[in-house]
Every structure is written in C-alpha cells, then in structure tokens.
C-alpha cells in the first residue's frame, strides 16, 4: 500500500532502553535455534571428505592401487604410500571452497532481492544437484570435481545467509549463544560425517564413498523444508519497506501478539536505525552499493571499510588457526605419520572433542563476551600447537618409536581443538553477523563468508603439499604445527586491536557503539539513547518536560500508566487522512535517503510532526 494511505498513523517507538526488544517465549527460542541446523549441512560436507580420501576403495578407484581387504593392507606399496596424489587431494578438497567463495558473494545480492529464507532454500537445491554428480562419478575425476564445485555454490548460499538470518532474528541477550549453536551444529555435522565414513571405510564397493555423499540429501531436505515453514527476517522486510510483513514476522520470532507494544517498540527501533543508516549510506547504483562496503576511514570504527575488514579479517584469522587442516586432512596426516595404528579412530576422537567442547561457548560467549574469548582462545591454541610441533620433531618421530610421545601429541591436538571450539569457532561467526549495518549487512556477511571460504580454499590447496610425501611435497609432518602456531599469533594481534565487545547489545546498538568507542574500550560502552528517540519516533507521552526527546536518564511515564496507554499512538490532526480509518495493517515506506527527516537536533519537532515514511496501525 502506498505511503500516506488512509488508515495509518506513524510508527512510534520508545526512548526506554529496556523496551527496544520484545520479550521472547520458549517457542520463539526454538524457532530461532532451528536455523542453526544449517550448521550440520555445512559441517557434514566439510567432514566427509577427510574420511573418504583415506578410504581404500576410493583410493583404488582414482589411482589403480590395490588393497587386500582380508588383511587390511595395501598390495605392492607401503601403507604410508597408499593414497591419492597430493595434487588430486588438493583439487578434490579445494574445489568445494572455490564454489562456496562465489556462492557466498552471490548470496548477498540474492538475499537482498528475494529474501533470506528463499536464498537458503535455493542453496539446498543447488547443493543436492552437486551431490548427484558426485555420486554418479566412479573414476571420472572431472565429474566428481564438477559435483564438488556445484555443491560448493549451494554451501556458499547457506553458510552466508544462515548467519545473516540468525543474527537478524535472535534476541540480543542470547544472540551469541544461538549463533554459537550454528558452530555446534557444524561440529555435530563433522562428527556425523566421521561416523559414517568410519562405518563405510572398509567396504569393497562404491558404497564406501557413495553412502557418505548420499546422507547429505537428508540434511538438505530438513533444512530446506524447515526454512520454508519459518518466518522471514523482519529486518529484511524493513529494508524493503514492507512494514506490515516486518511486524508479522517480528511477532512470530518473539512469540508476541502483532499489536503488542513490545513489537511496536522494537520495530520502531529497527526502522529508525535503518533510516539513520540510509542517511549515512545512501543507496546509489548496483556497483555503488557494493562499493559502500569499502567506504569510510580505516582508522574509525564507524567506517564501512573498517567493518568489512573486521568481518572478512575475522573469517580469515579463523581459517589461519589451521583447524581445517585437522578436519580436512587429519585422517591422511595421521596415516602418513606412521606412528598411529588407527587413524580413522583418532580422527573420530578429535571430532568428538570438537563437538563436546563447543556447547561451553553457549554460556561463555554471553558471560565473558566475544573479545575476551578470542584473546585467550588464541593464546591457548598457540601454546598447544607449539607443544605438538616440539614433541613431533623430537620424541614423537617415527624412528623414536615412543608411544607415550605420540599420545602426548594427540592430547595436545585435542587441547588445541578445545580452545578453538570454545572461542574462535563460534565467536568468528557471531562477530560477522553483528558488525554490519542493515543497508550493507547482506553484502558484508557475504564478503566475510567468502573470505572464510577463500582462505579455506588456499589451505585446502597448499596443505597436501606441506605434509605430503609425493614428489614436489615438503613432507613437513608435525613441523607444520610451527606454521599454524605462528599464524595463530596473528589472530591474537587481530583480536586485541580490531575486535570490539558486542555482548548484550542489539544490532542497532552495535552500530552506535562502533561509532563512539574503540575496540579496546568497547567493553565499557553503555547505550544512553535509542534510535527511535534520535530520529523523532518517540511517542508524545514520552517527551521530556523540557521539550526534547529523552535519553536513558530522563523520566517518562511507565508503560502501565493510563496516560502512557492513552497516548500510545499519536493523535492525527483534524482532517488528516489518518483520522477516518481503523484498518489494522502496516504500510510500506520508501527507502530513498532524500525522504528521511533530519534528526531532532536538526529540526524543532512537536508531537504533531510525524515521519511520513513510517506507519503503524492505531
């Protein structure tokens, strides 16, 4: 419905900081939590490749090397030489990340055009097509690689937009825990993949690799059908000017009636923040909308360039911790060491540590905050990785035949995984979902997720050559942990100087915090006003006696006060088109920056002066 149609009064909010987010019911929490299921989809696809690369039948299919299933030993070659060439492993693994890189970038545009939910659903469909091609392959490397590439596009869609969707619908006090649930589901997916590949590893038929691939269809179906039934992100509808739909979706994700004062207040805050950001980030051409992600000062936290560096850098540093070295190549790495009798079982153990450790982040991320976890997590990973490397080049060498040293290496690898699972694993995704303003959020999250997959691809390409024994490989063995430990030191520096504390803030308050303080001082920042107050969207009953819109310290009537209730919606002027109708719906508002009003500081505002682009039912 057009702006200014009969039956609408302006959407008005509150200056009360305690009312800018509606209370949430248990049912609504479960609804938000289901979105985290996308992590299983992502994690399983990450995890099954490591096991399949070490499966005898798969190796025979793509190399011609023979294997005796009765004695479980290779025929004609040693057990350390029985495997795929480094180039083949590199191509099969990295091509998925190549697809996800482009998928994540494309997904940002699609999510802004058709919505968050449909983008994820299309991602599930594309992923399934790729799975079919992989299953159809026997020894055709090109067909298998093409299937991995197409599956990667689908994973790129889902991995980027699931984070965006969850961040936009989750309540602020538990947003970190709920988005951490996404990382937990990733670890659960990796564990399930290891269980499936372990159970099929000794099969003497194509089921050795086709069964692990086929299981992925289940996750795609569950995620696609579930997202079809969930509501759209209310912030997406605000961005598109569909306030009526935004209110309905917000009511669903908060478990409140659509005409609740809480819903009105939270929606008014989202709308006011969007209007503010549209003044700062005007929408121009398609290219200009992408370039907006790289505008602003590098030295100021409120610049879009700084936020893009934060999001993309966060994902880069997460990958440079080396965690996917374990999950992509753990099985083959343990085989090549020659000191571990059952590499499949050790890979399963490391994955189990990852799964059991991640739930600790649900509590710690909201208790200690994002920044503190990243700093101490990096320190823990650095120490554990250097210990593994030092043992590996001394008592843990193959010729030393020291079982105790090998066990110590495995133990410290598990400690390293523990620190990652509680800190950088979940927090990396939480930060990405929180740090971008609404006008560039989908593209910012897309760029950040693409950064994750770009560095994931780089690691997948070079790691087989770093630890492999084939011609042209470095054969570093456990010395590779010196490299990962050194890169973790960069992650520590990045977290200390660039990552602000976002615990307990709404997405709109995070925008303001990054405007007003530095990362090192961010933990002490406290919100003092709302965007609704600053943009003039406060109810007349809340206006201070001095004639200004109040801040957090001002007095305003309580929500239970009859006077407050009487003035919940501003009264229209005589003859106003708002006076006649009682139509109970929400109107669209345009998003042209030229139509946004000046702030209360820039114009004298009376209770009768309303913002024409924002409406709410009486």
TrEMBL record:
Annotated stretches, region: Disordered: 537-618
Tagged with keyword rRNA-binding: no
Cellular location(s): Membrane
Ranges annotated as spanning the membrane: 28-44, 90-107, 119-136, 142-165, 177-199, 211-230, 320-338, 344-365, 372-396, 408-432, 444-467, 479-499
GO molecular function: carbohydrate:proton symporter activity
Keyword entries, A-Z: Membrane, Transmembrane, Transmembrane helix, Transport
Membrane topology annotation: Multi-pass membrane protein
Listed GO CC annotations: membrane
Biased composition (Low complexity): 590-618
Residue ranges constituting the Major facilitator superfamily (MFS) profile domain according to the UniProt record: 31-503
Major localization listed first in the record, in broad terms: membrane
Any Pfam family: Sugar_tr
Family assignment from sequence similarity: Belongs to the major facilitator superfamily. Sugar transporter (TC 2.A.1.1) family.
The protein's name in its UniProt record: Major facilitator superfamily (MFS) profile domain-containing protein
């Amino acid at each position: 419905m057009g702006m200014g149609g009969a039956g609408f009064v302006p959407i008005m909010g509150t200056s009360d900081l305690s009312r800018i987010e509606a209370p949430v019911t248990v049912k609504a929490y479960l609804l938000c939590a289901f979105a985290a299921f996308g992590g299983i989809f992502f994690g399983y696809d990450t995890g099954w490749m490591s096991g399949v690369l070490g499966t005898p039948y798969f190796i025979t299919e793509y190399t011609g090397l023979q294997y005796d299933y009765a004695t479980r030993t290779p025929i004609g070659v040693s057990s350390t030489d029985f495997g795929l060439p480094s180039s083949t492993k590199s191509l099969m693994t990295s091509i998925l990340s190549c697809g996800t890189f482009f998928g994540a970038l494309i997904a940002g545009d699609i999510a802004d055009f058709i919505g968050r939910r449909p983008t994820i659903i299309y991602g599930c469909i594309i992923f399934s097509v790729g799975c079919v091609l992989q299953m159809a392959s026997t020894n055709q490397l090109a067909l298998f690689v093409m299937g991995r590439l197409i599956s990667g596009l689908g994973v790129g869609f889902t991995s980027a937009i699931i984070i965006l969707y969850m961040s936009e619908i989750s309540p602020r006090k538990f947003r970190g825990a709920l988005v951490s649930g996404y990382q937990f589901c990733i670890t659960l997916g990796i564990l399930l993949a290891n269980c499936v590949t372990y159970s099929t590893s000794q099969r003497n038929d194509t089921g050795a690799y086709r069964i692990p691939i086929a299981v992925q269809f289940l996750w795609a179906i569950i995620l696609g059908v579930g997202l079809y039934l969930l509501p759209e992100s209310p912030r997406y509808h605000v961005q598109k000017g569909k306030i009526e739909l935004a209110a309905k979706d917000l009511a669903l994700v908060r478990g409140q009636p659509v005409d609740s004062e809480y819903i009105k207040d939270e929606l008014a805050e989202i709308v006011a923040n969007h209007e503010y950001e549209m003044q700062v980030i005007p929408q121009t051409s398609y290219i200009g909308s992408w370039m907006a992600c790289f505008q602003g000062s590098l030295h100021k936290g409120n610049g879009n360039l700084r936020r893009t560096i934060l999001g993309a850098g966060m994902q880069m540093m997460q990958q440079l911790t080396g965690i996917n070295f374990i999950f992509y190549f753990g099985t083959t790495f343990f085989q090549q060491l020659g000191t571990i009798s059952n590499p499949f079982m050790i890979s399963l153990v490391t994955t189990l540590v990852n799964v059991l450790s991640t739930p600790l982040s649900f509590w710690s991320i909201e208790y200690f905050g994002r920044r503190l976890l990243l700093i101490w997590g990096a320190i823990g990973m650095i120490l554990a990785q250097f210990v593994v490397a030092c043992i590996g080049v001394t008592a843990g060498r193959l010729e030393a035949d020291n079982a105790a040293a090998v066990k110590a290496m495995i133990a410290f690898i598990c400690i390293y995984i523990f620190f990652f699972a509680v800190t950088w694993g979940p927090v990396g995704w939480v930060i990405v979902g929180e740090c971008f303003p609404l006008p560039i959020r989908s593209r910012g999250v897309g760029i950040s997720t693409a950064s994750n997959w770009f560095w994931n691809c780089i690691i997948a390409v070079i790691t087989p050559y770093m630890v492999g024994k084939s011609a042209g490989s470095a054969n570093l063995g456990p010395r590779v942990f010196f490299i990962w430990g050194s890169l973790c030191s960069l992650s520590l520096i990045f977290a200390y100087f660039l990552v602000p504390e976002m615990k307990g803030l709404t997405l709109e308050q995070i925008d303001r915090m990054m405007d007003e303080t530095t990362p090192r001082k961010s933990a002490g920042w406290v919100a003092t006003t709302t965007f609704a107050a600053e943009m003039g969207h406060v109810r007349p009953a809340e206006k201070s006696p001095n004639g200004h819109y109040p801040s957090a310290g001002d007095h305003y009537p309580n929500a239970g006060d009859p006077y407050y209730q009487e003035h919940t919606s501003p009264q229209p002027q005589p003859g106003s088109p708002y006076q006649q109708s009682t139509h109970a719906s929400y109107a669209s508002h345009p998003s042209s920056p030229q139509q946004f009003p000046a702030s209360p500081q820039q114009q004298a505002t009376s209770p009768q002066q309303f913002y024409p682009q924002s409406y709410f039912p009486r």
